[in-house]
């Protein structure tokens, strides 16, 4: 389905290619606008007084209103059909999910197999040949349409032994016509018609020389899928691969062991491939540009919009390396947040734009209630703005909170280099070489196994990690070029979607998705704790523990005026809030982890992490209504600090001011910036 961009909520949207660029390289801007763009310039966002930089921006094309193509389907091009021997029929396996209105199961110039309200019809040249054949959803079916004797035969057979489906219609007065134009599965090709929500498997052309069959790989293909005969089939608009097929029998959850059990693809009517809007502007980043967070400002007669990009470090200039959590930013980008499900505490135009344009984040459901699991940064990321407010908490979230940290660093002389999650995944440990410490933002929630391994090795070899957030190092993701994939597991109850355990493996790598901790990695064993509470009401201050006054830890609190600190902040009004972490020795916290401060007294609206189980029941659970700030000193001289709260960076002071949260953060970063004593 093709749709014009609805600019009612945002007059200008866009994206850059690449999303992160090194100094001296080009970055292009791709805009869609509902109002004329009067000027485009560049502004640096991560400095105390963000101002436009004098980098010339070249105009390539006048931007105008663009389109989205939404809905995935499968297609065999006419040129491929022409290579096949004479075609005498088609067959395929189909698993319908939720479909309203009229949808297309399969279509070409010779016929169309339609679905409407659970009933199938066969049309040929506008004439209805077969009508009113009911078929079930959420059951695997085998469907075949073929020449038979002097007529045409349609057969539908169900795979559920307890609810058998057996349909056979034979038309003696109809003639099989082989497709000559493109053959589509799940789409009629009409721009105004939604595609089919369904899984497909084992598409086959019956020919006079034998069958031509396409099986779907468990790994997302880079290009067309080839049959054994070499004919190409295209998966259009990024459907989900590595899905269970009729052959899955529950004996294994591992697609690398039983690939035939996972040879299905799931098409959704709101899938969206990476966009290919023409570039409207181009910038060559100066060779002496400082690494940081920048934005194109696209001005129009009603205001301006930011399109954020990152200038990353190509050479080492500072002892500290800030890791931009682009995986988290992308996972949240364009979150739908329908108001009938969520209590909005503030308005934000990005979410209104997402609703108007049917955009989905990796926190959302597809139209058939399956979870959205893959997306590209080649799309507008309208929630990625310095003025963004998250409707669930009425406060800044993600990028603006991280900018608050980086502006604090600039104001206080803390130098840093900068890379993104995407860089770290691609380059591995080499990206961290030579740095004394890696500094995170407020919510580095998602990581690939390669990223986590690089950070773990970095710390093991003497590097330090300043984890200045909460609920971090938690979910497994995979990257490929501009794509990010996230598969949630059935234990991740809450406001996000629950995935099936059998479909938790990632199509980009075939590794298990879900929590890193389930694979012996992640939060507890790396940074000491994991999410304990989540809530959107008032945040709480921290109070120092007796251990914080000991010789090993006292330096962190030098100059701190109060034992209790952090009672103000941008995020929910304090230093401990939104999501907070706590330790658990039974789940992997190292015994030498030191709790240096705690926050308690959270409102009852703060809910427990549903993945944790408490042996002592409710009494023990109440003792864990806590955030625990920790320090751990490592064998080769590094340390790991955990602020344990998404709200921590928001409690830093404004430039030119100071508070205890700022003093603790400065003590930490100053210490990590210094060479280790010999």
Beta-strand residue percentage: 25-35%
Strand order of the largest sheet: 30-28-31-33-43-42-40-37-38
**What structural class should be given to the helix and strand makeup?**
mainly beta
Compute the gyration radius: what is it? Answer: 27 Å
Output the number of helix runs. Answer: 9
Shape: globular
Please bin the fraction of helical residues: 10-25%
CATH homologous superfamily grouping of the largest domain: Class I glutamine amidotransferase (GATase) domain
Main sheet specs: 9 strands, mixed
Return residue spans where pLDDT drops below 50 for at least 5 consecutive residues: none
Tell me the CATH architecture of the largest domain. Answer: 3-Layer(aba) Sandwich
CATH topology of the largest domain: Rossmann fold
Would you count the extended β strands for me?
43
Q: What is the average of the pLDDT values? A: 95
- Give the tally of structural domains: 3
The rounded distance between the terminal residues' Cα atoms is 65 Å
State the name of the first-level CATH class of the largest domain: Alpha Beta
């Amino acid at each position: 389905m093709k749709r014009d961009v609805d600019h009612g909520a945002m007059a200008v949207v866009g994206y850059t290619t690449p999303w992160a660029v090194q100094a001296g390289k080009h970055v292009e801007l791709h805009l869609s606008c509902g109002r004329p763009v009067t000027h485009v310039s560049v502004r640096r966002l991560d400095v105390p007084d963000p101002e436009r930089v004098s980098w010339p921006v070249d105009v390539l094309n006048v931007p105008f209103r663009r389109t989205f193509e939404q809905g995935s389907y499968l297609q065999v091009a006419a040129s491929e059909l022409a290579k096949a021997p004479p075609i005498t029929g088609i067959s395929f396996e189909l698993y319908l999910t939720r479909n309203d209105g009229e949808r297309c199961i399969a279509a070409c110039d010779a016929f169309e197999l339609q679905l409407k309200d659970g009933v199938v019809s066969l049309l040929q040249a506008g004439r209805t040949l077969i009508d009113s054949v009911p078929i079930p959803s959420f059951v695997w079916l085998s469907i075949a349409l073929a020449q038979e004797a002097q007529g045409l035969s349609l057969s539908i057979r169900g795979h559920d032994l307890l609810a058998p489906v057996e349909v056979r219609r034979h038309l003696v007065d109809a003639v099989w016509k082989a497709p000559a134009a493109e053959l589509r599965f799940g789409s009629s090709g009409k721009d105004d018609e939604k595609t089919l929500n369904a899984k497909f498997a084992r598409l086959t052309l019956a020919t006079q020389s034998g069958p031509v069959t396409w099986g779907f790989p468990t790994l997302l293909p880079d290009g067309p899928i080839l049959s054994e005969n070499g004919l190409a089939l295209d998966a259009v608009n990024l459907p989900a691969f590595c899905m269970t097929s009729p052959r899955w029998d529950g004996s294994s959850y591992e697609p690398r062991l039983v690939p035939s059990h996972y040879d299905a693809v799931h098409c959704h009517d709101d899938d969206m491939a990476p966009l290919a809007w023409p570039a409207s502007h181009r910038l060559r980043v100066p060779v002496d540009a400082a690494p940081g967070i920048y934005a194109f400002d696209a001005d129009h007669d009603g205001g301006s919009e930011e399109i954020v990009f990152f200038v990353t470090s190509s050479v080492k200039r500072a002892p500290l390396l800030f890791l931009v959590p682009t995986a988290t930013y992308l996972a949240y980008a364009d979150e739908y947040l329908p108001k009938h499900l969520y209590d909005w505490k503030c308005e934000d135009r990005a979410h209104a734009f997402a609703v108007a344009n049917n955009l989905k984040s990796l926190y959302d459901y597809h139209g058939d209630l399956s979870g959205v699991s893959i997306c590209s940064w080649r799309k507008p990321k309208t929630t990625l703005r310095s003025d963004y407010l998250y409707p669930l908490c009425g406060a800044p979230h993600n990028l603006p909170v991280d900018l608050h940290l980086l502006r604090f660093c600039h104001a206080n002389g803390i130098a840093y280099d900068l890379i993104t999650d995407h860089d770290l995944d691609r380059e591995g440990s080499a990206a961290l070489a030579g740095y004394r410490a890696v500094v995170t933002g407020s919510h580095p929630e998602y990581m690939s196994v390669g990223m986590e391994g690089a950070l773990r090795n970095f710390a093991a070899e003497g590097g330090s990690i300043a984890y200045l957030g909460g609920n971090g190092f938690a979910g497994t993701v995979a990257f490929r070029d501009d794509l990010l994939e996230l598969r949630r597991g059935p234990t991740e109850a809450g406001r996000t979607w629950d995935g099936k355990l059998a479909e938790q493996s990632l199509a980009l790598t075939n590794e298990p998705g879900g929590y890193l901790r389930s694979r012996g990695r992640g939060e507890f064993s790396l940074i000491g704790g994991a999410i304990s509470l989540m809530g959107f009401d008032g945040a709480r201050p921290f109070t120092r523990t007796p251990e914080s006054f000991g010789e090993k830890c006292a330096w962190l609190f030098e100059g701190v005026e109060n034992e209790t600190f952090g009672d103000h902040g941008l995020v929910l009004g304090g230093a401990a809030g939104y999501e907070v972490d706590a330790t658990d020795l039974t789940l992997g916290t190292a015994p030498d982890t030191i709790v240096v401060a705690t926050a308690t007294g959270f409102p009852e609206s703060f809910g427990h992490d549903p993945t944790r189980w408490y042996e002592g029941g409710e009494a023990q659970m109440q003792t864990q209504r806590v955030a625990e700030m920790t320090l751990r000193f490592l064998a080769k001289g590094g340390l790991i600090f955990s602020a344990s709260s998404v709200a921590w960076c928001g409690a830093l002071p404004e430039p030119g001011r100071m508070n205890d949260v700022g003093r603790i953060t400065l003590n930490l970063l100053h210490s990590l910036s210094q060479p280790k004593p010999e």
